[in-house]
Design brief:
Length: 356
């Protein structure tokens, strides 16, 4: 595996490349052109410039998170053809710049959903949290407002203001899209992009829906082992793979994370590893990465990745906000650096006990 940190670009991130470079064991970043909108072509020159900036700091681009998918592709309207063309052009440009892993998601309307971005824990740290009760009491448009209000002034990925202002219209457009239709539209998209992925050896890594169930009546399909295997088999190409995000699949306690990892051998192209602490099955918070602080056995998760020979980029996912840092919720430096060090330590121990 290759330990990385997510970085939003110097215009958008409070964390610098110089800081990331000093996290032991981190040699790469997962980044994006944060100011491009879903559906836009990523110009090769812009990708090249980003790459040069990262390399000048002594790091490399280990992959992109995310190249977002335009709603027309998810809904399946006739204009999807143009947006798929644009996506293919973006993939060509990434391939030409020697970038070979692209994370994306196929969630209707919302990206990840949390009901609190700064829940205070006993030790004074703050974390992202979710309760089903809070979602049930909210209208979708209020959800957007609460996310915006709590974000320390940062634009949260997936919660861009332009999307917030179109929320009602988006819900109407998705009216006839059920889970089966969403699967069909995903298949259609993947079949169209596989040739360019084959040509440039680009691994597509779908991110799970977070939380891993339907919110506000919208269908969600990338939620469990059965569906993810269906998705892989329906377009049976090794470039059609997944981002294994423990914190997203783990929102559903019925998901056996190590077992899911083992069933995805060869198709996990990217891993997000973080822990959750459940207070009840519908109330969880994003704890520190350490097993003892949350509900998951992080050793078993890393061991499963090791056992299947996972060699792609991995990153600590959201961290807590600690030591007075002010940053995008989930994306401060300090706790993610602790997470990276901890995950590296687990990996070293697993590797050495295996080689003994
Ligand atoms: C990320 C997602 O911050 C997060 O929760 O894991 O926003 C992820 O980047 C997207 O869903 C992938 O497209
Ligand atoms: Mn994730």
């Amino acid at each position: 595996m290759e330990m990385t940190l997510r970085w939003y670009g110097s215009q958008f991130d409070s964390v610098t490349l110089e800081q990331i470079r000093q996290v032991p064991g981190v040699h790469g970043v997962i980044t994006t052109l944060y100011d491009t909108k879903p559906g836009e072509v990523w110009e090769r020159a812009a990708i090249h410039e980003l790459k040069q900036e990262v390399e000048a700091a002594g790091l490399k681009i280990a992959g992109i998170e995310s190249v977002n998918i335009h709603d027309a592709i998810k809904i399946g309207t006739p204009d999807r053809e143009q947006y798929i063309e644009n996506y293919i052009t973006t993939l060509e440009h990434l391939g030409q710049e020697d970038i070979h892993m692209v994370c994306y998601n196929f969630m209707p309307v919302f990206d990840w959903t949390r009901t609190e971005l700064a829940r205070k824990r006993k030790d004074g740290s703050t974390v992202l949290a979710y309760t089903q009760e809070a979602v049930d009491a909210l209208k979708p448009e209020d959800m957007f407002d609460s996310i915006g209000a709590d974000s320390n002034g940062f634009v949260m990925p997936g919660w861009e203001p332009e999307r917030m202002s179109r929320i009602k219209e988006l819900f109407e457009l998705y009216q006839d899209v059920d889970a089966e239709k969403l699967f069909d539209n995903l298949k259609y998209f993947l079949e169209k992009i596989m040739p360019v992925c084959d040509k440039y050896d680009i691994n597509m890594a779908i991110h799970p829906d977070d939380p891993a169930w339907s919110v506000f009546g919208l269908p969600r399909i990338i939620i469990n082992k059965e569906n993810i295997l269906r998705m892989m088999h329906m377009v049976d190409n090794p470039h059609n793979g997944v981002t294994f995000c423990s914190g997203s699949y783990g929102t559903n306690l019925a998901n056996d994370l190590p077992d899911m990892i083992r069933s995805l051998q060869g198709r996990i192209h990217f891993a997000h590893v973080r822990n959750l602490k459940f207070n009840s099955p519908t109330d969880f918070e994003e704890s520190a990465h350490l097993s003892a602080d949350g509900s998951f056995d992080m050793y078993e998760i890393m061991k499963a990745l090791y056992d299947i020979g996972f060699d792609g980029p991995i990153r600590p996912d959201h961290g807590r906000m600690i030591w007075g840092e002010v940053a995008m919720p989930g994306y401060g430096l300090y706790d993610r650096a602790l997470g990276a060090a901890y995950l590296n330590g687990l990996w070293e121990a697993i590797e050495k006990s295996d080689l003994k």
